[in-house]
Structure prediction request, 51 residues.
Amino acid sequence: MDQFKHLHPKFREVAALPDEQRKQFIKQKRWINYPVATRAINILAETLNYP
Prediction:
C-alpha cells in the first residue's frame, strides 16, 4: 500500500481493487460537504417551500 501514500487513508484500499470494482465505487453517489453548495441547496429548498 506504500504506492498509495498520496491518497487519503480511507481510499487506499479502494485504489487496490480490480478495475471493475473501482469503477463501481466511482459511480456511487456521495456528498462532499462544501459550505457554498450547502447554502445554495438551502436557498433552493426555501424557494420551493415559499408560498
User: Anything to note?
Assistant: The mean pLDDT is 92.
